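Following up on my earlier thread - several people asked me to post the actual chain instead of describing it. Fair enough. Here it is, all 156 residues.
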Amino acid sequence: MKFLLYNQKKIALFLIISISFLMGIAIDIYVPSLPEISSYYHTSIKFAELSISLCLHGYGLGQIVLGILSDTYGRKRIFIFSSLLFLVASVLCTTVNGVFEFNSLRFIQGVAIAGLASGMRAIIVDLFSGLELKKMANYFALSWALGADCRTVYWC
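Reply from S.P.:
Thanks for posting it. Predicted structure:
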């Protein structure tokens, strides 16, 4: 039993770091391409920038809805659903021909990331307590902060 819990904690630590990078990548790595996106879709830069707002709105609304659903149906189901939803929306973003469809998929990406993030935060609280919980919460925040620095260095 103790070995199983240890393995779950190791997997949780890996996911903590991975998911926080994914949350930032959906915005940070995408921003430099906004002028090219507006050119590709033959639209103004405002509609390309709208995709960022829609992604963040999806992230905000998704936390409310998917957080409740993960408590109801289980974190694993929502985690898998959100991962697949993010993957499908990301692939479809590369194939759509209109800015409306693109922005809709960006909203869906935000919802999917919210499912991953809210589920990950809940998993941290489920698996850890006391000082370990504080450490894991710090790892989550630290990997988010370092991820932004790494992404910024990559693009500079």
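The mean pLDDT is 82. That should answer part of your original question.
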